[in-house]
Amino acid sequence: MNELRKLSYDEFPKSLLEINDSPTQLYIRGSLPPDDYIYLSVVGSRKYTTYGKDACERLIEGLRGYPVVIVSGLAIGIDSIAHKAALTAGLKTIAIPGSGLNTNVLYPAMNAQLAEKIIENGGCLLSEFEPDFKATTWSFPKRNRLMAGISHAVLVIEAEQKSGTLITSRLAIDYNRDVFAVPGSIFSSTSKGPHMLIRLGATPITSVEDLLEALNISKTESGDANQESLFETISDDEKEVLGFLHEPCSRNELIENIDKSISEINSLLSIMEIKGLIKEDMGQIRSNL
Question: Is CATH 3.40.50.450 the classification given to domain 4-214?
Fold first, then answer.
């Protein structure tokens, strides 16, 4: 159902009716996923890094087969990556843009094709703005409250210390939603936001297992099978690391024995831990294979 229509009040997602500044109207294109699914808002920087992109894709891929809906804002950057990763993983996804939903005003225009794919795959576009409303600077914080309000939890991938992403996480806290954050490099400006949230009590997410546990999802047999499918896509660099981990060793030992820069190895190890290939505990890195 691709046509644009206005939801009746009875059709509003129940979670949006719980917040103190709930919308008075909602327009939709597509279909709302069931209310009993877990709605996870995934947000992050427009200026994402390769690490942020990989982390977003791997974590969402790890949710394949589970009753999870990915919510994001259709923006360039982590938002778009999250929507695309959800589609790839066979998950339904909801896009809440900072504009109306008519094609001629949909923002950003370059994601119009992505918006159509979201609808075609059982998800939807949602907005409280009139269909012909053009995005403005004030409309994005306004839509951020819908993203936080409709979701059971918000996952922050990358964000600078002053960004719209942190507005969404602050609203999530106000609405008594869970906030998760992916740690990053201490040298990256896009890690400052997640690290600040973790200091303030956000749950750090370093692997698919962390995310499933934080969402209170039991790891089923199908989940195990999904993880096995990830192992089948191990890169050559990852194989080199795993080949060295026939027994646990320290990060320094890996750095000394693998012909890569320290930053490359640290980034590689972070992605491998998110994928569930390795686990670092008490200064020792172990293979999970």
Answer: yes
Q: Among 13, 168, 211, which residue's Cα sits nearest to residue 94? A: 13
Tokens 């709930």 locate to 22
Give pLDDT tens digits for 69-83: 999 999 999 999 999
Cα distances from 198 to residues 7, 155, 159, 237, 245, in angstroms, run 37, 12, 12, 30, 30
CATH of segment(s) 234-287: 1.10.10.10
Burial class (CB in 10 A: 0-12, 13-18, 19+), 170: middle
* Residue 221 confidence (pLDDT): 42
Residues 6+ apart with CB under 8 A from 203: 178, 179, 180, 181, 210, 214
pTM flag (> 0.70): yes
Residue 54 tokens read as 């990989």
